[in-house]
Amino acid sequence: MADHPHYPQSVAELSERELLARIFPRLGGPRMLLGPGDDAALLRAPDGRTAISIDTLVQDQDFRLRWPGGYRTTGYDVGWKCAAQNLSDVNAMGAVATSLVVSLTLPAHTPVSWVEGLADGLSAALRALGAEDCAVAGGDLGRGGQLVVTAAVTGDLQGRKPVLRSGARPGDVLAVCGALGEAAAGLALLESSLDYARLEGRERALTAVQSRPCPPLAAGPVAAAAGAHAMMDISDGLVRDAGRLCSASGVRVDLDPEVLRAEAELLAGTAGKLGADPLSWVLGGGEDHGLLAAFAPDTVLPRGFRRVGTVLARGDGANPVSVGGAAPAAAGWDHFGG
Amino acid sequence: MADHPHYPQSVAELSERELLARIFPRLGGPRMLLGPGDDAALLRAPDGRTAISIDTLVQDQDFRLRWPGGYRTTGYDVGWKCAAQNLSDVNAMGAVATSLVVSLTLPAHTPVSWVEGLADGLSAALRALGAEDCAVAGGDLGRGGQLVVTAAVTGDLQGRKPVLRSGARPGDVLAVCGALGEAAAGLALLESSLDYARLEGRERALTAVQSRPCPPLAAGPVAAAAGAHAMMDISDGLVRDAGRLCSASGVRVDLDPEVLRAEAELLAGTAGKLGADPLSWVLGGGEDHGLLAAFAPDTVLPRGFRRVGTVLARGDGANPVSVGGAAPAAAGWDHFGG
After folding, report:
1. How does DSSP assign B231-246, residue by residue?
2. Which residue among A337, B227, B278, B314 sits deepest, i.e. has the most Cβ atoms within 10 Å of its Cβ?
């Protein structure tokens, strides 16, 4: 197609309306009270409350268009990841996502096909992750020097109490749903000089976890219904996010070194190949988008959750998160790193 | 403060938590069911529906940090404008804003004081524009190569029907609330080589309209209650936005040349100084964030609205918007311009 003079290759060759006409048909989704195309969209909020959150992906910060090993991030990847990380925030409240609104900032040379892929990836993530009630309700398009994709997500608690970070109590079981460190392993593979085209099944799959994460969306509402005392999305690494749960709840937690070692063991082969420490991925790796939750000690953990530690009364120590009573070996991700 | 070695000057010198600690206290606002700090915030949606929209400001596209005449865009300006343009979208549905969630993408060298100013500007706009029921519900912080500020806004229809773009009927009065062309005049002043420091009262005020727009937030719900058939935000220029209303409603409109001439006359002094055509500002200037609405011919126009034309049955002509029966002299703003 590249030599056909009238085939639009970059977004600079289309008007806003023409670009939107290529995006809207790809979005599909459930019927809303009022969908995209007016000044605002209109969602149902049947229980009289709406949960809301916002999250952004920035080129060269949250993804590279081309990684050292040769993998090229597709629009589909970015659309999927944008949906997934937003859906995960609503999941962590115990809510069900009802809409996404998406703002795209696009350099003039962005291929139109990349933007179409982004719309496809958004849609596919909603379907594949089981967010059947979530529609892409609208958006905004503009130019900029680098790709920036922001989505805001709304959620419906379906009459349940929201599960906050602040409800953990001493004696609670600390549990995780979803992988630990896989997204970090995938990131390390993409950042390495290993030729992406030659990666084998397991390692190819780890890069997919990084590019197209699959948060366990069924688990949030189930944990809420099971009476989870506290819950949050693990987006910046287990230790850092557990520390946030501790701050909000006024507790500390001790992680079980045996459990963490077993988690790390699953990533040991890849880590060995890269000269990395798999335990640091498990403790500090971001973007897994699983759930961290505290349950009363007598709760039968809902399917998919596994115990990783214990909630304890806050002591005098500075560090709210320990591993077998000692300081953890890795901290996690800070967006500013100051 | 610049020579105090421990005073943080750029966001790179703070952790995410430290930066958030400087932002949150500036946000204030009404009490929410659950405010910022958890995975998602929680709003009331008393009438069982939530209106939602999203809008983005990008450095060097939507604002310059330093304009040719010397004006430096403050964080306060960008925070104000981000709030205002989002609030305007909800206003145009006839709804009342209930929350903003804000995502900031910040270059490492961004002064912390600029970000604090942004939070202050957001807050000030909510208060000054009368959005007393709107809280900053949460946000997201990350790094990037240029400043990108995105907000999503939610609104409450308070039991009313939303006013769509699609309801205009032949015979309706086309009316406007808010200024026409002032933001474009302000933009032209900022883009000119006129020394900002020497601008006089009226022209200084026009640049303020561009930097800190004041959408008429009381007017949207009032127009809805008065039975407006159709309504939208004028963000990309009167002619372009009227064309969108026509497309959605299956009608055309004829604008009154006398009315437009009187509007242009208000900007003639500034236009003369810049060698510009004030009518092109009135017809094509973006970012005024007033309201364009269609009312039944016998409606007493709500306070603040003035007649600018008439809705007609769609004819055979290609152009849905005419001025005294002829083609308009200016088109409006397209974000991609293809």
Report:
1. EEEE-S-HHHHHHHHH
2. B278
Task: Note whether A209 and A183 are within 8 A (CB).
Answer: yes
Burial of residue A228 (number of CB atoms within 10 Å: 0-12, 13-18, 19+)? buried
Quick check: B93 and A46 CB within 8 A? no
Q: Which architecture characterizes domain A11-156 according to CATH?
A: 2-Layer Sandwich (3.30)
> Helix, strand, or coil here: B198?
helix
Quick: pLDDT tens for B286-329. 999 999 999 999 999 999 999 999 999 998 777 899 999 999 98
Same CATH topology for B11-156 and B165-323: the answer is no
CB contact under 8 A, B105 and A58: yes
Q: Does A292 touch chain B (CB under 8 A)?
A: no
Flag whether residue A245 sits within 8 Å of chain B, measured between CB atoms.
no
CA dihedral B118, B124, B127, B132 (to 10 degrees): 20
Residue of B nearest to A42 (CA): B51
Q: Which burial class, exposed, middle or buried, applies to B297 when counting CB atoms under 10 A from its CB (0-12, 13-18, 19+)?
A: exposed
* Contact criterion met (CB < 8 Å) for A336 and B61: no
Superfamily of domain A165-323 in CATH is PurM-like C-terminal domain (3.90.650.10)
Q: Above pLDDT 90, what percent of chain A?
A: 87
A42 and B51 Cβ atoms separated by less than 8 Å? yes
CA angle B183, B148, A54 (to 5 degrees): 115
Strand-strand pairing, A305-313 and A251-255: antiparallel
Closest residue of chain A to B167, computed from CA coordinates: A38
In B103-122, the residues whose Cβ lies within 8 Å of chain A are: 103, 105
Cα atoms in the 13 Å half-sphere on the side-chain side of A302: 20
Give the angle A113-A117-A121 at the CA atoms, nearest 5°. 175
Q: Which of A19, A49, A60 sits opposite B43 (nearest CB)?
A: A49
Positions in chain B short of pLDDT 50: 1-3, 338
CB A160 within 8 A of CB A243: no
Which is nearest to B249 in space by CA: B313, B161, B324? B313
Structure tokens at B282: 């009135």
Instruction: Report the predicted TM-score, pTM, of the whole model to 2 decimal places.
Output: 0.93
Give CA torsion, residues B80, B85, B88, B93, to 10 deg.
-140
Q: Is residue B47 exposed (0-12), middle (13-18) or buried (19+ Cβ within 10 Å)?
A: middle
What ipTM does this complex have? 0.91
Give the integer Cα–Cα distance in Å for B120 and B22: 11
Give the residue extent of every domain in chain B: 11-156, 165-323
First to last CA, chain A: 47
Query: Whose structure tokens read 């952790």?
Result: B15
Contact status of B153 with chain A (Cβ, < 8 Å): yes
